[in-house]
Amino acid sequence: MKITFDWLKDHLKTNLKEKNLLEQLTNVGLEVEGVQNLSSDKELFKVAKIIKTIKHPNADRLKVCDVDVGEKEFKKVVCGAANAVEGLITVYAPPGSIVPKNKTKLVVAKIRGVTSYGMLCSESELNLSDESDGIIELSSEYKKIIGKNYFSKSKSNLIDLSITPNRPDCLGIRGIARDLAASGFGKLIDFKKKKIKSNNIQPLKVKIKKEKNQGCSIFGSCLITDVKNTESPQWLKNKLISIGQKPISAIVDITNYVMFDLNRPLHAYDADKIEKGIIVRNSKSGEKFTALDNKDYKLEDGMCVISDHKGVLGLGGIIGGTRSGTELDTKNILLESAYFKPGSIRTTAKKLNLDTDAKFRFERGIDPLSIEDGLNNAAILIKEICGGKISKIDIQKIETHKTKIIKFDINLVEKIVGFKISTKEIFKILENLGFKFKKKKNFFELTVPSWRPDITQEIDIVEELVRISGYDKIRIIDPIKERKKSTLNKSQKLFHFLQRSIASKGYLEAITWSFTDSNYNNYFRDTKKEIKIVNPISKELDVLRNSIFSNLIIYMNKNLDRGFKDLSIYEIGPIFSGSKPGEQNTVVCGLSSGKKSRLSWIEKERNVDVFDVKKDVVQTLIEVGYKSEEFFIDNKTPNYYHPGKSGRLFLKKNADLVAAYFGEIHPNITKKIDMKTESLVGFEIFLDNLKLPAKTLNDQKNKFNVSDYQKSERDFAFVINKDVNAQDLINAIASVNQNLISNIRVFDVYEGDNIPKSQKSIAISVTIQSTEKTLNDNDLENINKLIIETVENKTGAKIRS
Amino acid sequence: MSDLKKIKDEILLKLKSKLKLSEVNQIKSDLFGKNGLVSSQFKKIGTIAETERKKFASELNVIKDELQDLINLKIQEIENEEIREKLQKEKIDITLPERPFVRGKIHPVSQTIDEISSIFSEIGFSVEEGPDVESEYNNFTALNTPENHPARDMHDTFYLDEKKEKLLRTHTSPVQIRTMLKDKPPFKIIAPGRTYRSDSDQTHAPMFHQVEGLHIDKDINMGHLKGCLNYFIKEFFELDKIKMRFRPSHFPFTEPSAEVDIGYEMKDGKIVIGEGNQWLEILGCGMVHPNVLRNVKVDPVKFQGYAFGMGIDRLAMLKYGINDLRAFFDCDYRWLNHFGFDPLDVPTNYRGLSR
């Protein structure tokens, strides 16, 4: 909403300065978005006349114009507009002026070899409208003021307000003045009620059809005959220009003026083009009309239309149609002032994707009691400026406005806002805002002004009072430093721990979109359902991610393209399995590329491999508090992992839920995506599948139990079939005697000479120690034997002799 | 005895020359071995006349001790020399690089979430979460934003079905609804998380982060709200004093509603938070609307309180001098390294938020 202090003063008597105004507007909740000084950078723009044009010698589409700018000599200006013809009166911007649209400062410049002194302007360049096709064409009236300023001098700045959607009343200057007056910023000037004096009834029949979901409840109108539409007088033009509006013709300007002044939208029809009478009704599917934006609209069932006996004239409260629009030669005008229901307006405008000033106002709620004031004010102005005869006002309505009454207990104010406002002050504020009140036993009965559709209950009154009396009066009550409940629950603590645990292993944390490119998502979707976004922001972000890998790979690739080689990134966040709330899981997903110790003078470089990510996963889970001895790992992994070089980890054998996957990314994917790296490995830890460790740091730890008896280490080498896992050997050894066997390590895996082709040799070191005594040779020999026997029996391995 | 003295002199002479450890050991065994020169003298003690014996023995012992000391000294000398020579040889170029290491980082948004949680933890808020995919009801209707409310226009929403019943939450406020439906008052929670709007330009990203706050009890008023936010802002920016103002605004789910501005100024092209004559909007808040409380079956006559919501990414930008919102989600390795935090830098109450 754009306003000026000068216009405000039509409704507000005040001695205060603009600086105070800006502060006060913000204080009452009418946020000042910007202040623009229109006159200072616009006073250089002159009314000018093109005297002569010749074709530019070096450019087909350019002309060199001699322009009369009211000085002795004509200015030479190069112009490319098709409508720059001899005799045109337009707007001239001299060198030194700043073009409002793009803020460029004009200089004397050679354009294709011809010097141009300034520029002839289009409406869009002056921010008057979006019209950029050709330069401004001014009427012959401007002949008298060639060389004079096009923009009238105004000391009042343009103030841009951000009006919240609950305050339609402040979409009119008077509403803003009322709020300011209530807050003590001046006095609201009484509204001078004008009244049409006429004996003629409005002859055009208007009917609101009583239909289900009728969007119009009141339709007021009057007929003005024998008008002479013209340009608006200077005062009216200046008013509109002062708030950045472009004057069009007197009739349009007057309806706009009333709308900005009182937030009362009006519509003017060319009465001669209305066939028989007005019918306000619901549209039928397939009906068409051409709107004033020159677009054709095809309507659905149930949209509120203003029609005549021939068809649709316009969409009520949204946009008029070209068939009945007023023009400069319009003689008879039907002026409409109606009430359209916000919901109906919004539904229709959304379906047709239409946004107009009228729609913006009606969908927020127009004062239903402003219909006659709007007609009276506009009709009398039209008569003053365009002449003609006004009919009586005709009002059709199918519902009557119900005054809202609210029971209000003034004690609620202090209870909510925390400070006291005196009863006297409360009623002064409410009165100034237009409320009426009656005292009842324990409460007051408030009558809500008709222009405040937002006020429906007691709490709304509290807001009015604290808003007007000032938010700065709310006192600070310092918080008490007391905690009754733990800040994080167990799963949040786990999230936090995993997040930092992975980072501590050299991964950079990334945060990527929860959506991704379906092409990439398909690589990592496995058996999951694709979840499409109905209205994606771009083709590359069209689905919710089924895995974090898709995004990590996309960004990993970008970083590889930047010339980085050895990268480790991870993200902890949601992946989605369905489109219902809750069909999501939290995953920690990491990705590593390239080599370890690349170009190191001291360490041997090697590709990152599956055992790097296995280490990261296992170490992390141990750090969280799980027992690695209980982990169960196999090689059944989703199809985006290398089938031979990837693993699946369960916290316990026979657990149902996968704790983590890790492995090389499938070579098909890296090839298709064209990843330029020596190696690409990744992992996924599923937070929701981790049963929280039973023990926390809070619990007592196990008894500290160590043995000081001598321990001995024995090495074994077994030959087994290649398809037997090392884990099976370890499990077999561990099962022999848990009291005596404390540490089992694989220290060599060998395939090749001296070993049959289908077999491999695994060397294992076992630590044997008793908590009760030093084991003698005999004891050790027995355990040795038992280990060998057990392993051979359980796994089919043979001890290497 | 004179023999022995002669030997002693010879040995003395020998030990003065440069010897190897093995040579010294040879001398040692020549003297003190089973049949060594000194050992054999001791054997002789028994054969010497009783009158002489005592003197002989004591003289012999003196010489033996002397010789032993000399030899030990020599050995020490040689060993020292050997270590010295070894050290001389073992000198390396210590300016060569250390063994390679990698360093991970925590994303500034995660760090900021931890900072926020730590601050609110101190005054008794606990952390709640909600799903990213929400129902239209929880995201709008329950929050007093019915269908056809113009406030919905401010939320460009991503939908997951044609009926527009399932969507990506446009704010963290639906967590208020979930929390209040799940439990009984009082409520004192914050809810940080991802939020989504179909809006993308230099200053808007289709995904961003918000933190919601909710405090409902019997007597929580706007003074508590102001106090809570005043405390938070001071703690977050790690300042003793901060200029803050409450400005009336409108959100369908709070009444009265406010936007909160903090003072700032520009110094050398950098934003300095706290003082100054400029105002910067950082969050929206208000008293939870009675309609919202009714929607979650909380009696607005008995219970009341406040809610607030703020942009985490923007807070991080202000605190850490990050200019470009889009860069948060661009995953540029250099950016993550530059703005990321060491995983050991856990913001806590007792050690403070930052180093």
Describe the 3D structure.
The complex is a heterodimer of chains A (801) and B (355). Helix content of chain A is 24%, strand content 26%. Chain A is α+β, with helices and mostly antiparallel strands and 801 residues long. Chain A has 5 domains: 46-145, Nucleic acid-binding proteins (OB fold (Dihydrolipoamide Acetyltransferase, E2P), Beta Barrel); 205-397, Phenylalanyl-trna Synthetase, Chain B, domain 3 (Phenylalanyl-tRNA Synthetase, Chain B, domain 3, 3-Layer(bba) Sandwich), CATH 3.50.40; 405-473, Phenylalanyl-tRNA Synthetase, Chain B, domain 1 (2-Layer Sandwich); 490-689, Bira Bifunctional Protein, Domain 2 (BirA Bifunctional Protein, domain 2, 2-Layer Sandwich), CATH 3.30.930; 712-799, Ferrodoxin-fold anticodon-binding domain (Alpha-Beta Plaits). Chain A has a 7-stranded mixed sheet, sandwiched between helices. Chain A has a 5-stranded antiparallel sheet with strand order 6-5-4-7-10, with no helix packed on it. A 5-stranded mixed sheet of chain A has the order 13-16-19-20-21. The relative contact order of chain A is 0.06. Chain B has 11 helices and 10 strands. Chain B starts with a helix and ends in a 16-residue tail after the last helix. Chain B has 2 domains: 2-89; 108-339, BirA Bifunctional Protein, domain 2 (2-Layer Sandwich), CATH 3.30.930.10. The longest helix of chain B is centred in the first third of the chain and has 40 residues, at 50-89. Helix content of chain B is 40%, strand content 21%. Chain B is rod-shaped. In chain B, helix 5 crosses helix 10. Chain B is an alpha+beta fold. At the A-B interface, helix 6, helix 9, helix 11, helix 12 and strand 28 of A face helix 5, strand 1, strand 2, strand 4 and helix 8 of B.
